[in-house]
Amino acid sequence: MKNIVVIGAGTMGNGIAHTFAQKNFKVTLVDVKPGNIEKGIETIAKNLDRMLAKEKISEDEKNQTLANISKSTNLSEVAKSADLIVEAATENLDLKLKIFTQMNEFAPENCILATNTSSISITKIAAATSRPDKVIGMHFMNPVPVMKLVEIIKGYSTSQQTFESIFEMSKTLGKVPVEVNDYPGFVANRILMPMINEAIETLYNGVAGVEEIDTVMKLGMAHPMGPLQLADFIGLDVCLAILNVMYDGFKNPKYAPNPLLVNMVMAGKKGVKSGEGFYDYSESKKAEKVAKMFLK
User: Fold this and answer.
1) Which CATH architecture has domain 3-180?
2) Fewest C-beta in 10 Å: which of 48, 189, 222, 236?
3) In contact, 49 and 62? CB cutoff 8 Å
């Protein structure tokens, strides 16, 4: 498999495209909005520049990685020659089912169809296609070029051949693939999201403030990032979507999203991506931090 199509140029999509391209796969980054693609390519270039500055890659490797990436808004055209299509769109079931219907229609019979979903049933997604044996989950972690883990999730009908192909391919990407069964939230988010939700519950009940909660988890539990800061980084809308999938799937109140999380998402406070979540990421706040550094 050498020709890879990645659908969605957002944080996960451009990270997945970057990762494949850096290992000399030919990648086409697809998005319905040309502006999203340009922004995605810019992000990849900036991340490569950081790697270059840290001497993790050479100038030639950076240029070759960028040369390995093509851009398109036309899935029907680029899917025709794809060996693997990785869907990395928003965590929304209806949208994913629509995309997989299109992937199934346009891609050749031998093409594997993968989803980067962080919680939605692979079996349910595969049912939208005529090739459920070739549908699989590849749940990368954010930031994709840095994080080693990939959850490899088989749906009810995913063939062993498909599984083994994707499992081995993940190793060629420099990742550590882990086989996971098809249940809501899989492993990573089934454990992570209740912890984040409980941190929000702790804040909601007035037990401690945002920074205090994160400090306890960083210094007391050796977490590199506090749960509220991590939620901002993931995207509060994404956290809410994952919790809703698990709540609907298990019918267990422990997965019910906290009202504070629901209200923040409805108010447009989605974390880093919106400029504000549990922390303030606005330009004015950044300028304030810089000023404080110089005033010290």
Assistant:
1) 3-Layer(aba) Sandwich (3.40)
2) 222
3) yes
